[in-house]
């Protein structure tokens, strides 16, 4: 992502560390795997939503696993090429700015 001009914060595979990162950094956009190793990341996603941090789910899981209140969030299925991922993140940042 750094070759696309982004400053990367993270990565981490633990929900508590994600919460620390979003509290202590200015985050323009995030990509979030549904499985953070300790279980689903839906509470992290809700926290990002409450803080108005645009994000997308980057996952191998089917859309049916996503709770209804998060089902409208952007989602890309693994594997995804970097160009498509960067383009989608740029769209999310642009949508936040407007």
CATH class: Alpha Beta
Rg: 13 Å
Shape field: globular
In helices, the fraction of residues equals 25-40%
Mean of residue pLDDT?
86
Q: The CATH topology, please?
A: Rossmann fold
Assigned CATH architecture:
3-Layer(aba) Sandwich
Summarize this structure as a short list of keywords or feature phrases.
about 100 residues, alpha/beta, Rossmann fold, three-stranded parallel β-sheet, 3 helices, about 35% helix, globular
Quick structural overview:
By secondary structure, the protein is α/β, with parallel strands linked by helices.
Give a written overview of the molecule.
With 98 residues, the protein is an alpha/beta fold. The chain has a single domain (2-97), classed as Response regulator (Rossmann fold, 3-Layer(aba) Sandwich), CATH 3.40.50. The chain has 3 helices and 3 strands. It has helices spanning 15-24, 42-50, 82-97, and strands spanning 30-32, 55-59, 74-77. A 3-stranded parallel sheet has the order 1-2-3, sandwiched between helices. α2 (42-50) links the parallel β1 and β2. The longest helix has 16 residues, at 82-97. The protein is globular.
């Amino acid at each position: 992502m750094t070759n696309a001009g982004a400053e990367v914060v993270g990565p981490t595979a633990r929900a508590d560390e994600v919460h620390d990162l979003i509290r202590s950094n200015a985050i323009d956009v995030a990509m979030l795997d549904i499985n953070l190793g300790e279980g689903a990341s839906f509470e992290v996603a809700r926290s990002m939503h409450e803080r108005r941090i645009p994000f997308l789910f980057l996952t191998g899981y089917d859309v049916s696993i996503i709770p209804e209140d998060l089902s409208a969030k952007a989602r890309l299925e693994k594997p995804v090429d970097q160009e498509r991922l960067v383009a989608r993140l740029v769209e999310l940042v642009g949508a936040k700015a407007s």
